[in-house]
Write a structure and sequence with these properties.
The protein is of the alpha+beta class. Helix content is 19%, strand content 34%.
């Protein structure tokens, strides 16, 4: 039962860059930190309030969203790849105005932020980290009513073909990433939370408070998170969805997003990427003080 915090002793095989294997004992590992999402791809995701999923990347703290299956590199070759998200917003994206994100019908392929992330920001990444990033297809499917979608509904809609998939290295998270990151708790357990729409999770405290991905803070401020997925609206055409942390997890319209603040929170664009399938975790235990160390 994922709602139970089972503590155990785990032995982890660690491989260094010379392919030497060693065994590391990790005590007090909470198995609730990882769960399969039961989508068609059955990805393995980190869940809960603050799982040990920190990783040192570009000499910064990032976090592992999970291990994702069937990620296409654009040539039709699909592999399992680790997905990372920066632990804090990018200064390139903080309070990014809606018109710069939602350019050309909210198609990420034509957004100014897409260009910024994949030129200026990508060029600023250290070479040893940059070579670990894979260029992959990011699906740009969109829905008609984001308020009615559970995490699984969102996952399927995101992968439906609306806009042509975009091939590139750095993008934004999906709404389903936020929804699937909940572990639930004693009132609403993990499975119950996943049966709620992402919008209605606002009113299920266990679903929101035990979700590490919707509590991004930066210099003590809580941020609303832009996502890559467009929504069709009879009032505004297509608009990007972005999700609120804590009890305002829902979505909002572009003109409200342009205001920059609401309920004391700011808009944030948080870089998200997939690692090369050959990247290995060679050290660390995943805490923010002893993050995982990567090697290619």
């Amino acid at each position: 039962n994922l709602a139970k915090q089972k503590v155990t002793e785990v032995y982890v095989k660690v491989e260094d860059k010379f392919e030497n294997m060693s065994e590391v004992v990790r005590n007090d590992v909470r198995l609730i930190e990882l769960a399969y999402d039961n989508t068609i791809d059955n990805n393995l995701r980190y869940i809960g309030q603050n799982p040990n999923n920190y990783v040192s990347f570009n000499n910064e703290l990032w976090r592992i969203v999970g291990s994702f299956n069937n990620i296409d590199d654009g040539s039709g070759e699909k592999k399992s790849r680790i997905k990372l998200i920066k632990a804090t917003p990018s200064h390139y994206g903080v309070r990014f105005s809606a018109d710069r994100i939602n350019l050309n019908g909210n198609n990420w392929a034509y957004a100014e932020l897409k260009n910024t992330f994949n030129t200026t920001y990508l060029n600023s990444i250290q070479e040893e980290s940059k070579i670990m990033i894979d260029s992959v297809l990011w699906n740009l499917g969109g829905g008609d009513d984001n308020a009615s979608y559970t995490p699984l509904n969102f996952y399927n809609v995101e992968r439906a073909k609306y806009f042509e998939p975009w091939n590139g290295k750095i993008a934004l998270p999906y709404p389903s990433d936020l929804g699937f990151a909940t572990s639930g708790g004693s009132i609403q357990n993990h499975n119950n939370c996943l049966n709620y729409t992402i919008h209605s999770m606002n009113y299920r405290n266990n679903c929101v408070s035990n979700n590490w991905l919707i509590s991004i803070t930066y210099y003590g401020k809580v941020y609303k998170m832009w996502t890559i997925t467009p929504e069709k609206s009879s009032y505004t055409g297509f608009r990007n969805v972005f999700c609120y942390p804590y009890h305002q997890l829902g979505t909002n319209t572009t003109n409200q997003a342009t205001e920059g603040t609401r309920a004391g929170m700011l808009n944030a664009a948080i870089p998200t990427l997939y690692l090369n399938s050959e990247v290995k975790i060679i050290n660390g235990i995943g805490t923010n003080t002893d993050p995982f160390i990567l090697s290619l």
